[in-house]
């Protein structure tokens, strides 16, 4: 049986509402949820708050429907960037990003979208679904993010709230699908209330409207979410990867490139 995840549960100061959201997610069959803290910089740089304490919120998390295990609760940071200076908090060395399980970015311009895809140390790139996409998705940027193991997030709760945002959600999703062909997509709720949550199989069906195949739609709420979580763990723990390559001497390399009849003879020959 697939393990489903919702990596975007809106963080709210109302603890009872937040607990109700998590309980509803567990009842719907989600094995993992992430509480999303959104940071939006307006001109001057602001301090990013510390993640919410999961143990204080839930000493004993609710049990997932149909399973004997409690739901796994993670923390997530989403930074809305409208200026290049805001990207400084999205570096591996930043203490803010290392304290969260998942780090996402919501770029406001095409240039920042390209930077997020190619250089930023994030796990998710949020696609705006509440208004018409202000820029076009470029194939080099999207392919660069896919190669780096970064996932694109589509939130579905705005489509439930308003018919206009529903059109924007579907339109922006289809524009992205034309480039990424359904690869590296996750779907999450961004729910602020329990009524905005839907079951994982309902979301998989919704993915068909977004241009996903049946298999890609199911992966968007299961295997792709686990891959994004693994990417987050690697980002937090890995200090770097060292590649070792055997260096071939220049003389040997040139000799290998020559035709067999003209290669230098050796004793073994």
Describe the structure.
This protein is globular. A 7-stranded parallel sheet has the order 1-2-3-4-5-6-7, sandwiched between helices. It has 269 residues and is an alpha/beta fold. The protein contains 11 helices and 7 strands. Helix content is 38%, strand content 17%. The protein has helices at 15-28, 54-57, 95-98, 110-118, 139-147, 157-161, 163-180, 200-209, 214-219, 223-237, 250-257, and strands spanning 4-10, 30-40, 72-81, 102-107, 124-126, 151-155, 185-188. The chain starts with a strand and ends in a 12-residue tail after the last helix.
Helical/strand content category: alpha/beta
Helix content: 25-40%
Low-pLDDT segments: 239-248, 250-254
Largest sheet: 7 strands, parallel
Give the strand tally.
Answer: 7
Let me know the average pLDDT. Answer: 82
Distance between the termini: 61 Å
Give the SSE string: EHEHEHEHEHEHHEHHHH
What does the overall shape look like? globular
Portion in beta strands: 15-25%
User: Strand arrangement, largest sheet?
Assistant: 1-2-3-4-5-6-7
SSE layout and pairing:
Blueprint: E1 4-10, H1 15-28, E2 30-40, H2 54-57, E3 72-81, H3 95-98, E4 102-107, H4 110-118, E5 124-126, H5 139-147, E6 151-155, H6 157-161, H7 163-180, E7 185-188, H8 200-209, H9 214-219, H10 223-237, H11 250-257
Parallel strand pairs: 1-2, 2-3, 3-4, 4-5, 5-6, 6-7
Helix pairs in contact: 4-5
